[in-house]
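User: Sequence in, structure out. Go.
Assistant: Echoing your sequence, followed by the structure tokens.
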Amino acid sequence: MKREWIDEKLNLLSIKLDGFKTDSSRFFFEPTEEIYKNLESGDENELHFVVAKIAEHLEIPAPIVRYDWGLKVDLEVAGQIQNIYQLKAIRIPFFYVGKKYALGSILAHEMTHAFLFYKGIFLNDQNENEMFTDLTAVFIGLGKLVLNGLTVASNQYLAEVQILGYLPLDSIVYVFKNICERRSISLELSIKNLISEAISKINAFNK
């Protein structure tokens, strides 16, 4: 992914979302041990608990979320968000039950779709819009969920790297570090609740 495209879209978001989460100490949605415990359980009520927490962070209504035994999606899609009677609903293939880091990354992406829907921000090209959604997830504070999920995917189950992200891991790291610099976020705060593999990727990254 070209850095020029990333920088252009970051500047677009800076204009569109001027004033969003101006307090850097509250910028990140923190994927705590409690969050991942709820994602690991396989219980839909606990899955909804996490969605509600993310929605609260993003200041949007919480959509319905459920595991779907019969959901068939393309290889590059790990979740799906759709309209149900004017409400947004997130459907996640049953394959991901118990995979807490993957689920965190999936929810970050799908909740960002919901956020952009409520803000009326989208790109006309569908594939470009999916990449833009990954980028926006980091811009609005969900980057730790994304990084943890992508890092585990790349280390433990290679076949899922493409499934879990439309932007490659190095592009996500670039966006993450860029946002931290723009907001003058300390290294200590930026790596809090990141898994060790994700921290290693950040420390090894060179612009």
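User: And one key feature?
Assistant: The chain has ten helices and three strands.
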